[in-house]
Amino acid sequence: MSTTADTPFPASFLWGGATAANQIEGAYNEGGKGLSVQDVMPQGIVAPRTAEPTPDNLKLEAIDFYHRYAEDIALFAEMGFGVYRFSIAWSRIFPNGDDAEPNEEGLAFYDRVLDELERHGIEPLVTISHYETPLALAERFDGWKSRELIGFYERYARTLFERYGARVKYWLTFNEINSLLHAPFMSGGISTPKEELTDQELYQAMHHELVASARATRIAREVAPNAQIGCMVLSMPVYPLSPAPTDAVAVMDFDHSNLVYGDVHTRGEYPGYFLRTLREKGIELDITSEDREDLTNTVDFVSFSYYMSVAMTADPSKKVEGEGNIMGGVPNPTLEASEWGWQIDPVGLRLVLNQFWDRWQKPLFVVENGLGAKDQLVEVDGVTTVEDDYRIAYLNDHLVQVGEAIADGVNVLGYTSWGCIDIVSASTAQLSKRYGFIYVDRNDDGTGSLARYKKKSFGWYAEVIRTNGAALTR
What we know:
The protein is an alpha/beta fold. The protein has a single domain (about 15-465), classed as TIM Barrel (Alpha-Beta Barrel). The chain has 14 helices and 14 strands. The strands form four sheets. It has an eight-stranded parallel β-barrel, surrounded by five helices. A two-stranded parallel sheet has the order 6-8. Strand 10 (about 375-380) and strand 11 (about 385) form a beta hairpin. The mean pLDDT is about 95. This is Glycoside hydrolase family 1 protein. It holds the Pfam family Glyco_hydro_1.
């Protein structure tokens, strides 16, 4: 891993950005696409689903990447992206999820996206399933509660590998797979209301996804042997609220609840602490001998999102969950928070990179990190832009910590900033919660021209990429 004196980042480091189909594409009923769970979730992850798409669901049009992908990819190239992480909409390929044949119009759309990326020399990083289970599978099978979905996902993944395997080197099986227990409809297409689900049902659904992920890894190695297959987890470093040993145990237990997904993906079996959890909850998972064999297909690398850290305590009187955090936890009194209550902790990114590397010894990829904020368009020397110094400061400080982790000896493949162009927020379904280097003129009420404007951070990130991180302020 060669670096130069003025930057810890290796010459091979992949700089770029990340989006998800349901938050960017729009065109929810074009090109033969079927409905997904996102098309009936107009108000973010905590809202109940609707019976059918409604006009207030901003994701139905999103930012119209479906028709504007060439323009947007050209802007990514102008920033110097070496990699672009995007997801494929399952219901654009198999409209009902269980169709016998894929939808050629959907496949052809992603061919065009890949054509454009290749034209600009940008490496694709593809998420196979990013919170976008076909609605028909949610309604007919109750999503990943059903073992049937393993076969449907297997067919979908094989179709993608056969079509794009020679063009895509990096693949992720499921987005934030450890979120299923917390957001079962969005993450797992489970129609049964969360409050009615048993632990047995949720953990069985988790098992089905893990088996499906492992099967996809096996299929990729057969069909696209030059590809690299990764898992994707939501990272959440956790600190004890006090020096009390019981708080340290609470931290360990919280950590285990997140780390089990990566443990299975990298080690090929369930760890002892998880088996204890199942025993104590009275859960007996339906695990076949074929399942156990499937799970031994471990990943090539681990990718993750990082937005915040939390604290943990054994004291029930202090267990107040942090605002906007679906994973739980206690606010850390030493940290400031974003407008949406997410605590800002750049050092936590270095810590989690070291933790994951020490634990799994697999290359790591930071595939989501960013600051959601309310941006305001202004005129500067006759140019419409956003003076987003707050975003620059946030990203700078986090990237410095990525550099520190690399200096620690951690193998980090790359970094893709979340929502590199403004997208519809998954957690709030708003467009006013903006992450991008590119402002999109669309508002929470659906109005706007969809015009694109470069923010101040656009030029800043371009310089960071051009200098391979030497431009960061330490």
